[in-house]
Design goal:
Number of helices: 16
CATH superfamily of the largest domain: Adenylosuccinate Synthetase, subunit A, domain 3
CATH architecture of the largest domain: Alpha-Beta Complex
CATH class of the largest domain: Alpha Beta
Number of domains: 3
Helix content: 25-40%
Structural class: alpha/beta
Number of strands: 22
Oligomer: single chain
Strand order of the largest sheet: 11-9-7-4-12-3-13-17-21-22
Bound molecules: guanosine-5'-diphosphate, 6-O-phosphoryl inosine monophosphate, magnesium ion
Shape: globular
CATH topology of the largest domain: Adenylosuccinate Synthetase, Chain A, domain 3
Distance between the termini: 59 Å
């Protein structure tokens, strides 16, 4: 018998399911909203009577276009988005963990278990405090801070097997998940046939070099409107009908086109019903939850997976993932309004890496590339594949900053460059001897560009022991400052090691 659990019971059973019970707008919130939006109806004193709120022009107020008087939004909206500004693996996990100490909620908005976000936290052992490394694939990187609620948004494709493994691992480490993890009822599920199709397609000629986690096929089903969502687990009849339709269709494809094994419908139905019992307590309407949290002035961190150049719209298509890692994806992937976004932080590795196929203009297929891989430990956190390595590419980053609206940058892994005599940065591209104005996202052009490099002197000093940006060796600061100037964007933080304490704020 399928459990209908505490989360989303059918309306006949409990009209106000958990997600409705948590539903945002209290009568007071609604009245405040009206008072602020229609002050003429209530008189200006009504606005003045509201609790004092600091009003800054950029993000906490809006202008009524009719009267050009500035009114306050109902409550502070505070959503920071963390995006990978390159090809993923920039160190987003570390930066999200760092920021989590000051936020209430961390919410993942896209991708799935293709992500591998590493967080290194101090642990007390018999020999004093040591560091332990954790790799998260689905659960947001705020989970190591007890006060943080973690949300898996509707934009994520959820692999039950990966999720349960991750929950069990965290429990085993003594990290409490209960009441701290919320999963969107609208998130799509990754099915065994998605993984199978992903791996079969990757055996063909036009390989992307995917992680094999079923991401592409799951998003295909989402957009052809045949996908199965978490909410479908709640109704046995619906689940069986949808699964049968899907599996019959996939079995045709598997046997007739790919000449592969077919799948057993009943086995999958049983497996997913078991999963329903396990995740029931976490499922809710996360969009309603997040919007309610915004009204309560909670601080939200939206955690992107992958990176800008892997974005299905803005990346190096077709060598991309199947979701929207850029900042725009946060609103659709979480069900929050664009007006709630207060800042976008881009995570940039001090050099470049890429996993999988596709153009990579500054790739170093030589000793330099091998050295970056070795010193930087550049092996995939999800698949263990060696990452392709090369110099930092400011020409591509300008584009990333534009499509993401990045206002602040966190530079990671500066310490990996410590022992280099000279460090190169690509400042622009030439094609057939002509300088390119814009970053080309079409693969053919990008594969033929000649990167133009600016050379920096290395600092030949171990930076991972420094605890102040101002005290870093002058050539290291020169490198970081030059990146900020070339990108015309503030460098807010520099990371000189994987640990929490190896984080320098640039004043
Ligand atoms: P993510 O996917 O963006 O979260 O990044 P990954 O976790 O896949 O890869 C980043 C790797 O670099 C992880 O092994 C981190 O522990 C490590 N890392 C993060 N910041 C630094 C840093 O400043 N220096 C060094 N040496 N390693 C770092
Ligand atoms: P995080 O969040 C780096 C790459 C794959 C492949 C392409 C498509 O840890 O930064 P997919 O399995 O998504 O269909 O593969 O995207 N890729 C990543 N590369 N970091 C990631 O995640 C990645 N997730 C996917 O290598 O080239
Ligand atoms: Mg990663």
């Amino acid at each position: 018998m399928l459990t209908l659990g505490g989360a989303l019971r059918p309306s006949s059973d409990r009209p106000l399911g958990r997600w409705n019970a948590r539903s945002p707008t209290s009568a007071r919130d609604r009245s405040l909203y009206f008072v602020h939006f229609f002050p003429t109806l209530f008189g200006k004193d009504a606005v003045a009577m509201q609790p004092p709120v600091v009003c800054t022009p950029r993000d906490r107020s809006f202008t009524n276009p009719l009267s050009s008087i500035r009114y306050l939004k109902p409550g502070f909206m505070s959503v920071q988005i963390i995006v990978g500004a390159q090809w993923g693996d920039e160190g987003k996990g570390k930066i999200v963990d760092h920021l989590s100490k000051d936020v209430d909620i961390v919410a993942r908005y896209q991708g799935g278990a293709n992500a591998g976000h590493t967080v290194v936290i101090p642990t007390k052992g018999p020999n004093g405090v040591t560091s332990k490394e954790y790799v998260l694939h689905l659960i947001p990187s705020g989970i190591f801070h007890r006060h943080v609620t973690c949300v898996i948004g509707n934009g994520v494709v959820l692999d039950p097997v990966a999720l349960m493994t991750e929950i069990e691992q965290l429990r085993g480490l003594g990290i409490s998940i209960k009441g701290r993890l919320l999963i969107s009822h609208n998130a799509h599920l990754i099915m065994p046939y998605h993984k199978l199709l992903d791996s079969i397609r990757e055996q063909g000629e036009n390989r992307i070099g995917t992680t094999g986690r079923g991401i592409g096929p799951a998003y295909i089903d989402k957009y052809t409107r045949t996908g199965i969502r978490v909410v479908d687990l709640m109704n046995r009849e619906v689940l069986c009908r949808k699964l049968k339709q899907n599996i019959e269709e996939k079995n045709e494809l598997l046997s007739k086109v790919y000449h592969s094994q077919v799948l057993d419908v009943d086995e999958i139905i049983n497996e997913y019903q078991e999963f329903d019992k396990k995740i029931d307590e976490y499922v809710t309407d996360t969009s309603a939850y997040l919007n309610s949290a915004l009204k309560k002035k909670k601080k939200i961190l939206a955690e992107g997976a992958q990176g800008a150049f892997l974005d299905v719209d803005h990346g190096t298509y077709p060598f991309v993932t199947s979701s929207s890692p850029t900042s725009g994806g946060a609103c659709t992937g979480l069900g929050i309004p664009p007006t709630a976004i207060t800042s976008v932080i881009g995570v940039v590795k001090a050099y470049s890496t890429r996993v999988g196929n596709g153009p990579f203009p500054t790739e170093q297929l030589n000793e330099t590339g091998e050295r970056l891989r070795k010193v930087g430990g550049e092996y995939g956190a999800t698949t263990g594949r060696p990452r392709r390595c090369g110099w930092l590419d400011v020409a591509s980053l300008r584009y990333s900053i534009r499509v993401n609206g990045i206002e602040k940058i966190a530079i990671t892994k500066l310490d990996v460059l410590d022992e280099f005599d000279e460090i190169r940065v690509c400042t622009g591209y030439k094609v057939n001897g002509r300088t390119m104005g814009n970053f080309p996202t079409d693969v053919q052009t990008l594969e033929s560009v000649e990167p133009q490099y600016r050379v920096f002197k290395g600092w030949r000093t171990r930076t991972s022991d420094f605890r102040s940006y101002a005290k870093l060796p002058a050539p290291a600061r020169k490198y970081v400052d030059a990146i900020g100037s070339m990108l015309e964007t503030r460098i807010w933080m520099v990371s000189v090691g994987a640990r929490r304490d190896q984080t320098l704020i640039v004043k």
